[in-house]
Amino acid sequence: MKKNLIIMLMILPLMVLSYDVALLITGEIGGNPIYEMMVDGAKRASRDFGFNLKVVEGGYNPAKWEPSLIALASTGSYDLIVTFTEGMPKSVEKAAKMFPKQKFALIDGIAPLSENVYSLGFKDEEMAYLAGYFAGLITTSNLPGANRELKVGLISGDIYPAMIDRMKPAYEKGAKSVNQAIEVLFSVAGSWSDPGKGSELAQLQFSQGADIIFLVAGGTGIGAIQKARELKKYVIGVDSNIISIAPGVILACVLKRADDAIYSVLKRAYEGKLPFGNYERWGIEENVIDFTLDENYFTQFVSENIAEKMRQIFNSLKNGEIDPLEK
């Protein structure tokens, strides 16, 4: 009897300390650099802190994401449910009202304030400003693929608030900070997984005089990269370093350290330090927005003069000397 009691007392703290997290991926992991990073960061946190992690892929049909989120919450099995992107704030708000005791975290999006919700948004405008400034330097350079027309491009997979309110204006400001005469061509594919459409839009922008395009288009951007290679033009990647796919065509990438971001979120949640009822926005200062300045192919195909100007702009953003959205 005494022995059994001792065993129970030893097991009880382990039961109390059990912590369960569910990630609802709004899409699929394979082939999506951001989600691959998110899952890697979450798994690393799970290993380091010993909590249980369940990953659920929501698929590419947005109509299924909200029901999946509500279904996870209805089980009452998780201390924290994490989901992603600016497509989910209203769904998180709805689920949070339905299950007020359930804790939610939205990453890469900002949900309406609620006592059981934490949101982490990224300063996408910093990424876009860096891309725009770099595009401006390229279009005014003497690189082989740069023509005399001061035009740069931006292709988006779809229309969404961060693109229209922050990324597009910041990209334009970055480019015009190099030369006010630079014109930005903007196209929307209407899909994140249509390389054919990406190729078509890139062909259109290149034919209109753009010599470099910033791709925020997911798998659709693959077609644009192929078209740039064919026409000996340039592109800028987003979120992860994909330069090795097409060195000399993809000249640079703006980076989002999503793995480090989710690691921090889950660490604080596990330690009871995540500020539910609030939101945060992280960028260069928090070391989650970066640029491929030290990438081998970048230094191979981009002049030191351009690289040095990018270092200066990067540091100016980090020090708060530039507001990417200030008009």
From TrEMBL:
<protein>
    <submittedName>
        <fullName>Basic membrane lipoprotein</fullName>
    </submittedName>
</protein>
<feature type="domain" description="ABC transporter substrate-binding protein PnrA-like">
    <location>
        <begin position="21"/>
        <end position="312"/>
    </location>
</feature>
<dbReference type="Pfam" id="PF02608">
    <property type="entry name" value="Bmp"/>
</dbReference>
<dbReference type="GO" id="GO:0005886">
    <property type="term" value="C:plasma membrane"/>
</dbReference>
<keyword id="KW-0472">Membrane</keyword>
<dbReference type="InterPro" id="IPR050957">
    <property type="entry name" value="BMP_lipoprotein"/>
</dbReference>
<keyword id="KW-1003">Cell membrane</keyword>
<keyword id="KW-0732">Signal</keyword>
<dbReference type="InterPro" id="IPR028082">
    <property type="entry name" value="Peripla_BP_I"/>
</dbReference>
<dbReference type="InterPro" id="IPR003760">
    <property type="entry name" value="PnrA-like"/>
</dbReference>
<keyword id="KW-0449">Lipoprotein</keyword>
<comment type="similarity">
    <text>Belongs to the BMP lipoprotein family.</text>
</comment>
